Protein 1
Amino acid sequence: MICGESPPTYRFDVVYCWAIVRSPLTVFSVADPEEPALVGQSALLPDLFGALAVSGTYAYLAGVWNWGLVVVDVSAPEAPRMAGLLTGAGGVEGIALSGHYNFLATAYGLSIVDVSQPDAPVQVGTLATPDAVHDVALRVALQFSRARRR
């Protein structure tokens, strides 16, 4: 810091931080980044989780062993609760979100899940690979058009 310079200030638009602590989903407040605080924790969930993504009022947890995807309603951060469950895509190691789709990196390949109804996620596509997929990331292409005035 240069002498006479004012101390750094922090501005966070992020208010909550979600973390997987063993099996429950744990929510922390990071409104003050110098003093994070525990806000809430879900009940025990049915698996251990290898990946987590959050969009809107839902957290998506990728199950390592028996479950494919657990959807947790985080609209009340002090009391997150399980909203939906997709079984059968076990061994999930990575997760990426785009719109109402979750893309899961699994022990068997890529799995695409429609989460437009969070209480009933549906696997809509799969791609088998010769080895396990360990992570997944998306590049979303945006297309813009200009309306012509008459």
Note: The two ends are 58 Å apart (CA to CA).
Protein 2
Amino acid sequence: MGRTSKDKRDIYYRKAKEEGFRARSAFKLLQLDEEFDLFSGVERVVDLCAAPGSWSQVLASKLYDDEDEDEAVAAPVPGSADGTAGLAAGGITAASGAVEKIVAVDLQEMAPIGGVRQVQGDITSLATAERIISHFGGLKADLVVCDGAPDVTGLHDIDEFVQVNGGTAARSYRRASGHEWLFV
């Protein structure tokens, strides 16, 4: 019997599906944390270019402990006019009114992830940066991660421009917020 395309997928793809991650890229972030202890002392994180959400899943599993989950309540915001995607089925806002820990940003809508505030917006937009900052109640993000890559056109000059623009947009969040962070 011949091999199907499903059989040819790499081990990380299969492992991600088995462990409930949305994409194999979750293991990149887990490996970075293992090597560099990224999450030590981190309480607030921004995940830029977050879709499909595997890095946000890792962040939620690392930043929320059992006590946080016990105190958490579902946020009643299924979506709003300002482009903030709702948290729906596992959205966590501390019952005590504590500031959220994870804000995930992407142009694409994502399925809800417990403990993650989703902002649907363009990371190159100042309005999106301001919405991100507002979710932390004026507190600084401790870590900003970005695993985004633009779609390629095959035209090198255009692709290079778009790639550089994405990195510049991620750095502009830091300038807009005045926050210090490690860019992964």
Note: The longest helix spans residues 156-177.
Protein 3
Amino acid sequence: MSNPPSGSRLTAYGLRLVLSLALGLGPWALGLAAQDPPPPPVASAAPSFADWLEALRAEALTRGISEATVTAALATVVEPNTVVVARDRAQPERVQSLDAYVKNWMTPRTIGMARDMFEKHGALLEKIGAQYGMPPAMLVSVWGLESSFGRFTGSYPTVSALATLAFDPRRARLFRSELFEALTILDKGNTTIDEMKGSWAGAMGQPQFARCRCAPPAVARSAR
């Protein structure tokens, strides 16, 4: 057995010696321990966006979504939307403190509009609250903060936005599921591709629901 090294390498040598003895390997294992570790496995290359879309198309068909719907919807998706990815990385709740978030969104104007809407639609809100167990004040809060009471429901094409986020690795699983839900809604004829627009994250409607919240439990209500 070779003599133990001296100087700055003594501590590392001693640690390897203790470990080899503790494992019952004996001092002869020091030579193996001193070897360079094997190189990490080479990660497989990520598929191109075109290849990824093709695989998505195949899975959509196996889920029972019609070929006509899948073809028409995915034809609107050319490449990932870089604006959508940028918005995903800069969500207010990720880059702002709670105090700053509340200050920016809970403005006197928003609070005043919420009170007006609560008074205007009070009877309907109370009816919905009694039927579904959702407090009317909570309904108005979601309505106001998510879309400014229906004034801003989003202008991003939903299929393109969801395809972008499903391809992006950060939350790919979530948005892949959301994309299939959106395609199912289109396949049922509940809306059209041109009309299916929402936020950069694919949320739709005045409460800005995700598709997994819209199908099947969501119920539409009118103020009339």
Note: The longest helix spans residues 172-187.
Protein 4
Amino acid sequence: MKKYIFKTLFISSFIIFGIIIGNYKIFPYSLVKKIFRSTIYDLIYNLDTNVDERIWRHSWDSNIFYNENDCIYFEGNSFQAIIDNKDQVPDLKSIYWDTTTIYGRWSIGIYQGQSVFNLSEPVKIINPVITASDVSDCDAYFVADPFLFYTDSVKYLFFEVWNKASSHGDIAYAESKDFINWSYKSIIIDEKFHLSYPYIFSWKNENYMIPESNNDLSVRLYKAISFPDNWEYIGNLLSGYNYVDPSIFRHKNKWWMFVYTKNNQQNYLNLFYSDALIKGWTPHPKNPIIRNDLSQSRPGGRVIIIDEKIYRIAQNGIPSYGTEVNAFEIIELSDTNYLEKKTIKNPIVKKGDSPWNSFGMHHVDAHFINGKWVAAVDGRNN
């Protein structure tokens, strides 16, 4: 009995010590943080809460519990092992360990290059250009998933802000005159559920946005009433499932849209098409386009069309979420068939030497502007 009491007191003291160190950044914070996280993992894997010898965790950028080696949720006095099944996922207001730098776990940068397959950090731009510390209208954990929109005089970034108060993502924007100096403006879309990946595009002189809203079991379409800060919800393009990172484009008088989905331990890339933007979306007969391949199944930014060649941008989630971004050339696209191949020059972005993206990158929105490619990207620092 004394043995178990001693073990319980030791573990409790260690956890409390780790939380105090984490909250107040007491010296030697970085060393203690590393030891604390490592030891917590060891403790976790010896608990009876394992599911199939794995701990299921909550993804920061969606409401999915999964077992990639990022962070672990803690609720009450126990670590949670939750099966990735919608009916068994509680609405947690959980504590997460602060393992980030001053930038937040994700931050936003600008890359440039003569080719979309040869992007790099420009000398004149100091990345990251937007971080969590720039957000002025909420206490933000990170910023991510940037999409670029530009006119001759103003450049805009639309992106996810992870709001600590609501424990989900909102959509915000920033402005620049030159791609170099950016000014954070405000959150512009705040729903009761998680939003991210604000895919902005224009059609018939109107500006639209499709943010990810998988917690709402929908793909939602918004229209700018007064650009850039007033958006109206128009309706759902798809409903009834956890659609992640919807990526829309137009080809041969049709609309096409990739969406990523998960079901228990399975993951899929699906394709839908429609003659009209607002309605009539039909699943492609070749669905799923990709099955159970985290190296290419999840969208990672805007679909790019160069000289009538279509490139699908995809995250590489191996060995962990947010590793790098690859491009795939679509070589056949019709309402009856789909074929693609991986481009030779991959990855198009990957982890860098700077602190803000030293652990990986998972998003590219590239545009050809004034004779060169300019891309909004994000970087992961832990």
Note: Residues 106-380 form a domain with the Tachylectin-2; Chain A fold (CATH 2.115.10.20).
